[in-house]
Amino acid sequence: MNNQPRCDRLILSLAVGLLAALAGGCASSHVRLVSYRDPYFPENYHVKLADCAYRNAPGGGIQAVGRGVQQTDQGTTTQYISVHIFWKPIPGKTPADASMIDAILRYVVSSGDGVAVYTGTGFAYPKPARGGGLDIALESGRLRLKSNSNMDDLLGNSQITGQLQARNDPAAAATLLREAELLAAR
Question: Distance from first CA to last CA of the chain, Å, rounded?
Fold first, then answer.
């Protein structure tokens, strides 16, 4: 089965999302993905997240999730970024080492009848935002394909960085996490 047309549609929708983000100014929540599917020619993708919420995790950490939906002529692409922060580093005081992490990352992308799930780890620096909520800076994140259904591996091993501006809304965070889980299970 040839999935090349689906792959082309998804790449086109990611590119349209990038152009929309650039035309509309800076997004409040966004991530940058660098795909190393071809290590000699890395590709950059930008994902704008229109809805982002967080909740305190049962184990004492923070769970934040953002969703971005893009409409194109080829259909709808839905993307979720979830971040589970399990300890809180202090910039400038917590020693950094390339082998250290403080967050588990998950990227779910759905287009048409295909889904790809990428998981990985990285650094997430949360700080209180003006007016409530959290600003979460993502740094040095690495993702790789965990599972896919009717979709090719679009990114290969990839790097993720970005900024999430999440509101403190436990119900919305749980709903967004559940939506991502349901898509990932397809």
Answer: 18
- State the SS3 of 74-91: CEEEEEEEEEEECCCCCC
The total number of structural domains in the chain stands at: 1
∠165-168-171 over CA atoms, to 5°? Answer: 120
pLDDT in tens, 42-52: 999 999 999 99
Q: Are 71 and 34 within 8 A, CB to CB?
A: no
Contacting residues for 162 by C-beta, under 8 A, at least 6 apart: 29, 30, 31, 32, 47, 81, 137, 138
Range of the domain at 134: 4-184
CB 46 within 8 A of CB 30: yes
Three-class DSSP category at 9: helix
Please give the model's pTM, rounded to 2 decimal places. Answer: 0.78
- The answer to whether residues 13 and 70 touch, using CB atoms and an 8 Å cutoff, is yes
Residue 156 falls in which region: left (phi positive, over 0), alpha (psi -120 to 50) or beta: left
At residue 26 the predicted structure's pLDDT band, cuts being 50, 70 and 90, is very low
Question: Which residues contact residue 59 at a Cβ distance below 8 angstroms, ignoring those fewer than 6 apart?
Answer: 86
Q: How far is residue 24's CA from residue 186's CA, in Å, rounded to a whole number?
A: 33
Sign of CA dihedral 95, 34, 160, 129: positive
